[in-house]
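Protocol step 4 of 6: structure prediction from sequence.
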Amino acid sequence: MIAIIDYGAGNLASVAKAMQHLGQECLVTAQAADVLRADRVIIPGVGNFKATEPLSNGSLGPAIRTALTSKPALGICLGLQWMFTGSDEAPELHGLRLFEGMCTRFSDHVKSPHVGWNQIEIDRRSRLLRGVPSGSYVYFTHSYRAPLCRETVATCTYEERFTAAAERDNLFGLQFHPEKSGEVGMQILENFCAL
């Protein structure tokens, strides 16, 4: 079973629908017990970095931290950003520090938020992106971007290069929305389910 974490900031229905389309049993939940018994965890997210506060300081926090050490976990958009040190969007809050670096806002020189289809460049071999060609188009919607880090496996360029996908051991993150990225996104979600 896949636990899709409901912390009030996700496009939960779209993620759940995509997983059900793949024939996966999933549960949208805000309960720690569900997170702990799940085989996999997805942390979706749309919105301000402040929305991650319940993940860090609420009752879900300890269960998610336990899950992240023991089972495949996928952060989507804000869920990925929460895996970093933090974000300039809410500097008073800490991220999980699983990946190093601060998420930063796009400058005033480009249209923000970055919304729509853009290409990703696959920088190195990835279990999550297996079968996805470099140059594939995926769907983004964000004003803050994940920095480049050691765990970066794919990048996107919008104003400058940023992390489009990161991966280490059982931890995976996407700055884009696979549930809205057509066949490419479904391939990525299918890869996650197969881990």
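Step 5 (inspection) to follow. The first strand starts at residue 2 and ends at 5.
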